[in-house]
DNA sequence: GCGAACCATATTGTGCACAATCTTGCGCAT
DNA sequence: ATGCGCAAGATTGTGCACAATATGGTTCGC
């Protein structure tokens, strides 16, 4: 009687089911109607897949037309996105896909390392049964990553690579840390798109597999070490790509890559 | 020529100045006009000072009258607050000050411990000169806390106690971690208000002083240990207060303490 | 007397119209 | 030819009016 009003859902998102902890992965910003959440998710997807690049102007009326909703709804969505540092709102000028600065990236990396180390530690120190469950799920995910690479599907590869980290966080069970990481991953995706030219090394899949092995074995130190390496790898690549261009002419010229449609 | 457009600011907020890193303390949600940010800040202040209790209904028109702005502005502010889990927006029912659940508090505590340990570690491992600067600032803050206690100003005491932690984060220099902690502290303030009856031990000031001594001495391990103790102290008190009442009759009855004006 | 449907009121949700602001392109003077 | 100013168009910002929904009390039927 006094239970929640969500009797029978689950088993609707296709492949990602059977594991309740993964339910938190779905983006559900509060205060938005289902229709708005849909559009919100599509925007985030577009960013994760690099279809929306940093600096692109998001014209309200255009978005309204694309998603088939009114301009005020778009307006609310943009406001929410701005709270998560995914969109930059300039007064009287409009909304732009965020272009993270050097300092922001450094901060984000520090936060990410902090969160993910905690996540991996949590996973690796769970009971054997639960750990087996988790590892099995993540191995399947890596399988999907491999397929995407084999098929040459660059977009899917990028998306799945980021999702791997989010799935780990979801499985660790802390909703708050998961949401923090979601924001960070999105921002990092933007930073990589903006400042990295050869983004061949977003996330090497072999490192994912090794990390998973360590978790499987319950080897805390090794898992921690591998993760730290993995992330510092990314950080070095990104921060190197950004080195010196920040707030400089190059960054300004980089803004050219706007252009709608 | 290619520098930022912030030539000479600073030195405007009265007592809290002379330290650039503390500038990040001021709440500035993006996408809100200055007028809206003002109202936003007042709402957060009211929550930090326990003048706004969890579960209280926030009627749009009332707030509009109080702050002297239009209803649509209030609407935007509430949407932003909902993104930070400070306000719960129920469709067609209205906005309510959030009442964190047991699970949310656990997650928040884990995140908080993670962030603050990193903050304290960062502070304690800074160079001697910088460390002296920081410690001096924080000691002055503790002085203010003492005064509030001596004067019997309960409201100021609560506010300053929470602010101590935020100042440490601000001085550590990571903006993103700071903002995360701001959200967590606000939520925790709500949780304490909602579920703790004798909230005499929000934060004991002597623990702040001890922690600061350890940072001053550059004693990483001791600082880390003291912080962990300090927070676990709080956690135990809160989670004990909440034990069993979650989603139960008690929680439902607790909603009675609404009443506007 | 009890319960259920109904209506009045209060509150939130949404679309629209217009105001404010920025951008762009043109023309004019130097 | 170059730079300045101005006007037209495009885009964002805001208030208002009305629709949709929830709430609480009342009345009617059993």
Automatic annotation (TrEMBL), chains A, B:
Coiled-coil portions: none
Signal sequence coordinates: none
Matching InterPro entries: GntR_C, TF_FadR/GntR_C, Tscrpt_reg_HTH_GntR, WH-like_DNA-bd_sf, WH_DNA-bd_sf
GO molecular function per UniProt: DNA binding; DNA-binding transcription factor activity
SMART domains assigned to the protein according to its UniProt record, in alphabetical order: FCD
Pfam families: FCD, GntR
Residue span, HTH gntR-type domain: 33-100
Keywords per UniProt: DNA-binding, Transcription, Transcription regulation
Domain of life: Bacteria
PANTHER family: HTH-TYPE TRANSCRIPTIONAL REPRESSOR NANR (PTHR43537:SF53), TRANSCRIPTIONAL REGULATOR, GNTR FAMILY (PTHR43537)
Name of the protein this chain belongs to: DNA-binding GntR family transcriptional regulator
Organism: Kaistia hirudinis
